[in-house]
């Protein structure tokens, strides 16, 4: 019962509901999420060469991530509509791991936070990389979608724990 | 150069382009994707109890995944518009791992495949679980978003390799 | 239990699911829905005079209904995406009742029917009338949203019963 | 002529226009709308049993209504874009009437009201119930879509008149 | 290099990015854009006669322009989401030129300007005219899409130069 | 009166309506549209240098155009929903004119043509170029949006007349 009360998206009878933020204050809020894309040698080479020349795989993914962040409230049923003041997507390539780390930062001045906007941007940017490379590597794996950071609002600053209580 | 030719979403000058499927045949096509959500003890209990009683966290996530599958061509820039004949989302809870495996199957009769539709459904369903539980567990991690299976079309059947050439 | 099986949008465990239409045939399908808008003397006069001169209230409503029909699969979670071959909206004014009957006909050649498309078109056209008149009449009432007719597909032709088993 | 001036969505030449709210103040605004769904014995039983067990018909409808409220400005041509601070959907079953009363409350802090958001939420939630039950009852009737209440803004509080001047 | 810095939508490495407006102030902002549609004698007559009677070609275009303005952030990848306080579309017919000048004014109180909203409204209203007349005149030409005016924000007022430095 | 009959988007009473394509056959259809963007020396140099290095202005515009083509039926009120089998956007820079010619080709196999899809792609790609360069050149002008070519369907092939009957 007390746990149920903690779960702000379900009302006391267990039905889905938006959190009522009517009385909350609009404050500056930011969030950063990331994930990792694991590639094989062929698909990694294409991204890296491509990047050296034209950068198109990652540029298309970047645009997709930015546009998806703006669609978050259409995708996540109980999210509030938030007008973002910033979305930035960053890619870090690691040749030794054949991996790309995708990060998304979002910001707003509003009554509720932008965690979901960063997570959606990260996920859709990564799936766009998958889409553009699936002709050569259908085994691409997207992993470790996590929220790294948020600040602003009543619940304050969150920084991801490195050794969390999650079992896997 | 030969690799570049393999990458069907980039034309010979490296610019982004949709794959021209005008001359391909409409055939029956299916795809299945999955991912794993890793929870802490508190958030896992909420989902499991909730499931026993009302199932709302997973039911909201299921609806979100189905609706997102239908939006794939709006989210992934170079995806074709496909009218899906089926979307099904499945959840498997594991108490020992405090995890939920989310699977999405999609189907169509069209000129191109539905891999991205399954992957988008899986991702958005999982992010909806995150959204509904983030008040109690911001460290939730979504991992191993992969395509398990596709069939139909000229490239035939794909079944995910268990021991792939991906390093991590 | 047998009733549950009849309810095609819920699977055997009671979870929401799209109906799998993969093996159904694309055939010509039509549907017609209607509803009634009840106005006061002032708002009715505006629509009628307006109609004589410029017709704008009803013309905006007509466009809204047509555009909404095309969005049905985005609005109704378990609806299939259907490309409509026709949408037509019709208005009948009755001075004695101070009412407008709104009808919407839709058509497609696809694997599943267009009942929801007609119902959505009718509803959104009517709500647009409300929106344009609410400055002078907030008591407008929209009533009797019903499906009058459908044909095509395995379940064949449906024509609404005038004296149905509904109590009110 | 004076009536025409009252109709804020048409300019003086009768063309459609958005109301210019540039100089209005952002204030707290709420609205509540409702409608009634009339079922036959079979469809009513499914909803009621379903509710006792899993609640899925109404839960899918609830999600649909919340998501539709967020899409109001895309559906109603002359509506302003409003970021909602709350959407809540409520269902009341009446066994004697074989009916469901659907209510939707919405809130914002903005320059214009949320009447249409509540009405859209109510309508789409009800149409989703229709969609999920149409396999067993195509004669379902949605009736009495009305605005019950609004407050906030220059025009102040509105409470629906029980015996209105509408003829039917 | 200094030019690159001026181009606010590309970061220093040349990748696409939204402009971060987090620290800007919400102020009243307006913009006006226009374009010209060039018709042949037949299509011009239809619009003009139509206008005298029902005005439907231009009324459908007007609605399309208003609705498109509200979708700007979905269409232009790096645009911020802005809730408009006004959109107004105006048409001026010139019989001697067989032309229609389409103007769109938009307004908001927000952290960034509405130039793109006016330009999108103008363009989509014009394309809607094309769509409604293409059965009789596929040679219709839309020309001179320009921003005429903006005010508000740090960069202040812009009024289009009549003799610009553009070569054609 | 006979002209009115030619205008397929208005019914005999002058109200807006979709063209009923229910009985038309699905055939292969293509269309190509183009327009010209006129820049000043500074903005032209940025695009050209950018193109040599990273190509981002045009790559973002290309993605915007492809995604907008897929949204045509949401933007143009009376357009049918069409699933495109191809969208390709091409840019030709002319240093002497300080201009960019934007072309968009689209294709489908469906019951109606894709003229509007090509025109929408061209327009939104061009407006995206405007958006990315407006910080350095607000006087950019987009001109000569035209349909160059279509084939497929009952009305057959259209090729734009160079010396049309349009006065300007």
- CATH fold-level name of chain A: Alpha-Beta Plaits
Strand content of chain A: 25-35%
**Residue share in helices of chain A?**
25-40%
CATH class category label of chain A: Alpha Beta
Topology summary:
Six copies of one chain form a homohexamer.
Chain A: H1 2-6, E1 27-38, H2 41-53, H3 56-69, H4 72-75, E2 86-94, E3 99-110, H5 115-133, E4 141-151, E5 158-159
Antiparallel strand pairs in A: 1-3, 1-4, 2-3, 4-5
Helix pairs in contact in A: 3-5
Structure description:
- 6 copies of one chain form a homohexamer.
- By secondary structure, the first copy, chain A, is of the alpha+beta class.
- Chain A has a single domain (26-157), classed as Alpha-Beta Plaits.
- The first copy, chain A, is 33% helix and 27% strand.
- Chain A has helices at residues 2-6, 41-53, 56-69, 72-75, 115-133; strands at residues 27-38, 86-94, 99-110, 141-151, 158-159.
- Chain A has a 5-stranded antiparallel β-sheet with strand order 2-3-1-4-5, covered by helices on one side.
- In chain A, strand 2 and strand 3 (99-110) form a beta hairpin.
- In chain A, helix 3 runs antiparallel to helix 5.
- The radius of gyration of chain A is 18 Å and the shape is elongated.
- Chain A starts with a helix and ends in a 9-residue tail after the last strand.
- The model of chain A is unreliable at 1-5 (pLDDT under 50).
- The interface between A and B is large, with 77 and 77 residues.
């Amino acid at each position: 019962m007390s746990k149920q009360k903690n779960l702000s998206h379900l009302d006391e009878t267990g039905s889905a509901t938006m959190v009522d933020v009517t009385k909350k204050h609009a404050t500056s809020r930011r969030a950063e999420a990331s994930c990792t894309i694991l590639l094989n040698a062929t698909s990694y080479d294409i991204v890296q060469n491509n990047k050296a020349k034209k950068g198109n795989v990652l540029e298309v993914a970047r645009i997709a991530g930015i546009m998806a962040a703006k669609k978050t409230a259409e995708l996540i049923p109980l999210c509030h509509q938030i007008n973002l003041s910033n979305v930035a997507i960053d890619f870090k390539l690691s040749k030794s791991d054949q991996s790309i780390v995708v990060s998304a930062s979002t910001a707003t001045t509003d009554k509720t936070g932008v965690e979901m906007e960063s997570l959606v941007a990260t996920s859709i940017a990564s799936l766009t990389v998958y889409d553009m490379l699936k002709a050569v590597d259908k085994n691409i794996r997207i992993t470790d979608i996590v929220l790294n950071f948020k600040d602003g609002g009543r619940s304050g600053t969150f920084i991801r724990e490195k050794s969390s209580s999650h079992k896997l």
